[in-house]
Each structure stands twice: as structure tokens, then as C-alpha cells.
Amino acid sequence: MNTESLTTVMTDTEMVLLIVGMMMVTFGVRYFPFALASKDNLWGKYQNVVETALGFVPVAVLTAIIVPTVLIRDGETVSVSLDNFHLLSSLVAFAVAYITRHTLLTVVSGLATFGLLKLFF
């Protein structure tokens, strides 16, 4: 396959328009929710929904970071086996977190499990 056909060369004008477009989208996404929230009638109506939705942001972000790190081995292979020490130690950490609700104990148990698995296997 000819790789030259897959690349496109942008002119300076196209590059500037692309940057300005990205700037407008980024600004709009960040500005308009705050602009709408400043109006009492809109904010009062949707305040509970927004607060509930924002409560799920930390869980969603951590899940998006942790799951690929735990499951993807060798850069592209999903590994759900007993050979995946990351998965085993994260399951132990999850169980400790669920039972104790203690953050430090959760981290220590996960790291200790991973270290022991690496040491003995």
C-alpha cells in the first residue's frame, strides 16, 4: 500500500482555521454550561441532576485509567488469565476496598499482592 496516498498536506490557512475551530469548540464546551448555570431559573431546575452526574466523574475517570492498565498486556493483547498479575492484584485490592472501605489498606494490599506474585511466580 502506498503510504503517500494516506497523508495529507495542509496549507497554512487550513492549519489556522483548524486551530481556530478547535479553540471555538473547546471554549464553547467549557463556557456554555457555566453561562447557563448562572441563570437562576435554569440552574434551579437542573441543579440536582448536574450534581448527581458530576458525582460519577471520579469513578468514570479512574475506571478509564485502571481497566486498560489491568487488562491490556503486551501493548495490544487483553489478558484475562491467572498469568496476569495486574488483574489478580487488582481483584484483591477491589475485595479489600469493598470489605474495609479503607484507602491505604486497599493500596497496600494490591501492591503487596502484586509484589508477592512477582516474587514467587
Could you walk me through the main structural features you see in this protein, from its secondary elements to its overall organization?
With 121 residues, the protein is mainly alpha-helical. The protein has two domains: 10-55; 57-120, no CATH class. 75% of the residues lie in helices and 3% in strands. It has five helices and two strands; from the N terminus they run αααββαα. The protein has helices at residues 12-37, 40-55, 57-71, 85-100, 103-120, and strands at residues 72-73, 77-78. α4 packs antiparallel against α5 (103-120). The radius of gyration is 23 Å and the shape is flat. It starts with 11 loop residues before the first helix and ends with a helix. The model has no long low-confidence stretch (mean pLDDT 87). The chain crosses the membrane at residues 15-37, 49-71, 91-117. This is Branched-chain amino acid ABC transporter. It holds the Pfam family AzlD.
What keyword list fits this structure?
single chain, 121 residues, mainly alpha, 2 domains, two-stranded antiparallel ribbon, 5 helices, flat, transmembrane helix, Branched-chain amino acid ABC transporter
Helices and strands in order, then pairings?
Elements: H1 12-37, H2 40-55, H3 57-71, E1 72-73, E2 77-78, H4 85-100, H5 103-120
Measured between the Cα atoms of the first and last residue, the distance is: 44 Å
How many domains, as an integer? 2
Per DSSP, the total helix count is: 5
Largest sheet entry: 2 strands, antiparallel
